[in-house]
Amino acid sequence: MSAYRLTLEELTSEWQQRLDSYPPSIRQLTVQTAERHKEELATHFYAAMLQHREAAQFLSHEEVKTRLSASMANWITNLYATDNAADIQSVIAHQSKIGEVHARISIPVHLVLRGARLLKHHLITKLQQEHPEQAAMAAPFAASLIDLAMEVMSQAYSSSHDRNSRAEESYRLFAVAQNIASEKEKQRAALLDWENQLMFDVAMNLAADQLPRLCASEFGLWFRHKGAHGFEGSVETGLILDAMNRIDDVLLPLFPARQSDADGQNGMQLLRELREQAKSIAYHLDLLFEQNNELESGRDVLTRLLNRKYLSVVLNRQITYARESGSSFAVLSMDLDHFKNINDSYGHEAGDLVLQQFASLMLNKSRAGDYLFRMGGEEFLMIMVDVDENRALRAAEKIRQLVAAETFRLPQDATLQLTASLGLAVFNGHPDYQQLLRRADAALYQAKHSGRNRAVLASAAE
């Protein structure tokens, strides 16, 4: 469900009410002051904004400064010159357009609001200096219209930014994950082609500035323009970029044009390090593709359950559905008791097998509409849809019994009996899903510290 946004009619009505709440003389005085000082106000606005490092990167281009300064001067005049519905709607449409432009070029909202604050302060100062007797009424009128304009801009910015974000995510997945298997092999082959070309050129005694740069190769172009974007945020992405930069900026310039017997050993050492860097790139590239194949789909690699990526999305949807339909749902936080002992006594392979078997048990015993997440380690979470408190508690108790009765298989035909502690929280109408998660975690804490192997229901109060 999208956030509520004011309609054009509602915004027009509010704008008109704001105009009607001030005498015509005050409105006219403000218009005249704004018109008289519009160039000065625009100059002051951009001078102040350009002193801000983050704002300067958006405003420092000479053409931008020239065009925006004139646009700002006109904006100031038009903002206060409205006096009928048609003019108001035109001004509102202009604010929306500005907001969309800001979103398209990714100007942070806080910078726009900072600029509005500076503009208000300077205009109010002019009113106080030139019209001290009327400033008490003119100042709030001047400020209120700028605030309304910022509200319209922010609303348009938010809507446009959401669309842009969805489009960006779609492109990111398209660019990298359209065909994981073929893309992986294609890029590994491209990396190998660059390496083979480099070895040939070195053998031909080409000068350092003639050797093929990795960043300019087919692989380098793909990774810098697509791969790095698609795998953004992964540690491996940074490691690959660092290795590429080291090859191009540090190692390749060290190769002599013609190797004599004296520097032959140095050349071999450079080749060995180049090979190691290339192997490192290939290794981390494999990891990236493996992670993208599983994690980008929102699933945990080991258990195939959902990971945290979509937890907030699912919970927000369930809260919206529950509030609209009058139904309820529950969050069940689950933790395998004494799991650390399994890793310590039998090894991590045994621990992984236990986690996989537990996940399989939960999948087989949960309903199709329920959601199962692996939160990390031995911690799992289930969202049980369309349940009241009694039904949720019965389901939690059944899960506890199933875990206790299950025989978990370990390597070398070993078996193990386990128990689980569970914390249950039923939706109580609070709109923030974090409150629901905190209640479930608190109930789980109580279950673990009151003997384990039990399900505890959180109270409805926070």
Structure description:
By secondary structure, the chain is an alpha+beta fold. The chain folds into 3 domains: 8-171, Globin-like; 180-296; 308-457, Alpha-Beta Plaits, CATH 3.30.70.270. It has 17 helices and 7 strands. Helix 2 (24-36) packs antiparallel against helix 5, helix 8 crosses helix 10 and helix 14 (339-346) crosses helix 15. The longest helix is centred in the middle third of the chain and has 43 residues, at 135-177. Residues 173-178 have low confidence and may be disordered.
Topology at a glance:
Elements (H helix, E strand, L loop, with lengths): L7 H13 L3 H13 L1 H13 L2 H7 L2 H19 L4 H20 L4 H22 L4 H43 L2 H24 L14 H13 L4 H17 L9 H34 L16 H15 L3 E8 L2 H8 L1 H18 L5 E6 L2 E7 L3 H17 L1 E3 L5 E3 L2 E7 L6 H16 L6 E3 L5
Parallel strand pairs: 6-7
Antiparallel strand pairs: 1-3, 1-6, 2-3, 4-5
Helix pairs in contact: 1-6, 1-8, 2-5, 2-8, 3-5, 3-7, 6-8, 7-8, 8-10, 9-10, 9-12, 10-11, 11-12, 14-15
Keyword list:
462 residues; Globin-like; Alpha-Beta Plaits; 7 strands; 8% strand
The shape, in one word, is flat
CATH class of the largest domain: Mainly Alpha
Low-pLDDT runs: 173-178
**Helical segment tally?**
17
In which order are the strands of the major sheet placed?
2-3-1-6-7
The number of strands is: 7
- Run of helices and strands: HHHHHHHHHHHHHEHHEEHEEEHE
* Beta content: 5-15%
In CATH terms, what is the fold-level topology of the largest domain?
A: Globin-like
Overall pLDDT confidence: 83
Give Rg in angstroms.
Answer: 32 Å
In total, how many domains does the architecture comprise? 3
Can you tell me the CATH architecture of the largest domain?
Orthogonal Bundle
Biggest sheet, in brief?
5 strands, mixed
| CATH superfamily (homologous) name of the largest domain | Globins
The N- to C-terminal Cα distance equals 25 Å
Class by alpha and beta content: alpha+beta
Helix content: 55-70%
